[in-house]
Amino acid sequence: VRSPSPRNSPGRQRRHTLPASEFRCLSPEDAVSVFEIEREAFISVSGDCPLHLDEIRHFLNLCPELSLGWFEEGRLVAFVIGSLWDEDRLSQAALTLHRPRGAAVHIHVLAVHRTFRQQGKGSILLWRYLQHLRCLPFVRRAVLMCEDFLVPFYAKCGFEALGPCEVTVGALAFTEMQCAVRG
Predict the structure, then answer these.
(1) Domain-located, residue 154
(2) Phi, psi at residue 168, to the nearest 5°?
(3) 110 is catalytic
(4) How far apart are CA 108 and CA 130, in angstroms?
């Protein structure tokens, strides 16, 4: 009698068919999961979210190709949402508009689920996102606004500071940053 090989023994069989790790564009069906991660990540820091649930749905319907989610075993653990912008610098309008003829991607939000933070996932996701943007021929650069404490993080990821952002949210002021995608 042959004993079962270790590869086929019942204890070693895969229990699911979902990929261990997957990056894909987000869809409107992902909006609630996105909002839950975003709300937890931002409410404790700033008291507000960059995007509310209806705005997340809005951007995922208009420009899903400008989003990227990181899924572990089918569960969203981190994401980026962007939209196109057509001016040199961000303005208040950039918070809610998608300008289809724009050559800049405005990164509205990057967030990592709390149990996956401090593992380098944010910088890995941002690197993957910039690679994804390089595949879109109309995109020339990525722009974002962040609080001062995040400037070193984005600088390590290849962004350069453009100076204070015109946009403010309540008492919060931001630094505007950009990264060349091509050209």
Answers:
(1) no
(2) -130, 155
(3) yes
(4) 14
Catalytic residue, candidates 58, 66, 67, 108: 108
Counted domains in the chain: 1
Let me know if 98 is a catalytic residue. no
The two beta strands, 21-24 and 160-169, are unpaired
Beta-ladder partners of 80:
68, 110
Give the C-alpha separation, 155 to 161, whole Å.
8
Q: Strands across the sheet with 141-146, in order? A: 21-24, 67-72, 75-85, 104-112, 141-146, 172-180, 160-169
Question: 36-86: per-residue pLDDT in tens?
Answer: 998 888 765 556 667 889 999 999 999 999 999 999 989 999 999 999 999
Token duo for residue 68: 């990227």
Q: What is the DSSP string of 42-61?
A: HHHHHSS-SS-HHHHHHHHH
Catalytic position from the list 68, 83, 132, 150: 83
Position 117 confidence tier, pLDDT thresholds 50, 70, 90: confident
What is the value of pTM for the model shown? 0.86
Give 40's contacts (C-beta < 8 A, 6+ positions apart): 113, 114
Residue 108 annotated in active site? yes
* Pairing, β 160-169 against β 141-146: unpaired
Q: Give catalytic status of residue 5 as yes or no.
A: no
Domain limits for position 137: 21-143
